[in-house]
Structure formats: C-alpha cells, structure tokens
Amino acid sequence: xxxxxxxxxxxxxxxxxxxxxxxxxxxxxxxxxxxxxxxxxxxxxxxxxxxxxxxxxxxxxxxxxxxxxxxxxxxxxxxxxxxxxxxxxxxxxxxxxxxxxxxxxxxxxxxxxxxxxxxxxxxxxxxxxxxxxxxxxxxxxxxxxxxxxxxxxxxxxxxxxxxxxxxxxxxxxxxxxxxxxxx
Length: 183
Description:
This protein is of the alpha+beta class.
C-alpha cells in the first residue's frame, strides 16, 4: 500500500515539473566565432587523416540534408534554398582526385567536376568548385562541413552543411539523372 502511494506522488510530481523543465530547455542556434579574415573558426576539431578521409569520404555519395547560414556575427540560422533560383543545393561525390557536385539548378540538374586536394592538417578540401570547404565532422553516415557559399575570404557568405551518406541505388540514380556541365 505504501508503495502505491509513493508512486502516485512521484507521478504527480513528474506531471507538474516536466512541463516546466521542457519550457526552460530551448534549442540553441549554431554559433561560431569568426577569425580575423571573417571565416568561421572551428576550434578543437579532430584531425581527419588522409587515410581516414579516403576510407570514410572517398567513393561515397553525400546527400545534402541541412544548411545553416552563418551571418557576419557567426550566428547560424536554417537556410532554405529558394525554389527556382539560379543555383541550388548540391550533393557531393569524392573520387580519389575529383569532386563531383550534383547541383539542382533552375533549368536542369547539372553535374560539375573539379580536381581537389585534401589537406589533413586543417581538414580542408581545396577545389575550384568549393573555394572553402572544411570538414568539421565525418563518420560512416554523416559529413559536416563549413563552406563558403559565395564572395571572397573577407566578405564571404559561409554555411554549415550537413550531408548524409547515400545508398548505392540513390548514387546510381544521380549519375543517370544529372547532365555534365558544358565548358
């Protein structure tokens, strides 16, 4: 009898306190400090060696899942790609030496290709297609990057992109559904 009374009181206590706890827990927006050149500073990230990059990133398709636009103060907000804009979001594929962008453009789906170099000391992908791409996290299923969307180093527009690993079927459909960029 004592046990049931205890559980009733505990249940009532939880019913009244959980809503209060839920109201005080607000989701924080992403925020980065900016370095002297205006690039988002990502401190204390784990170095991704060339071997890790090759085993976890290369040879996989990466579907863009989420984009967070970073303002001039480094604060982030979810970015919604505008339908019908000239250039849209892009999915990725890394071969051993080329980066392929599957770009959703206004008129058609476009496949852009450019050679890249991976710099493990800073987790940087150096490529003309992606003027600034720094990997902040990678696992077998998830890739998070800071990228410059447009502009130069000092006045660039930066985003944090979250990509999910594509299935082999989805990647094969991309190869068939995107037209190579004409030069």
